[in-house]
Amino acid sequence: MWESRDKCEKPIISCTVLITTPNTVLDEIHDRMPVILEPRD
């Protein structure tokens, strides 16, 4: 969640999906895959 610079609007809820080249398991299915992060990251 983040706020606009003018702070007049409601907070904005958003997300981001990070992608990378696929590992050997998914390589035959698709040319990219989501990045898997550890909770501490």
UniProtKB/TrEMBL annotation:
GO biological process: one example: protein-DNA covalent cross-linking repair
Organism: Peribacillus saganii
GO MF term set: single-stranded DNA binding
Lineage, highest ranks first: Bacteria, Bacillati, Bacillota, Bacilli, Bacillales
Protein name as it appears in the record: Uncharacterized protein
Gene3D superfamilies xref list: SOS response associated peptidase-like (3.90.1680.10)
Pfam families: SRAP
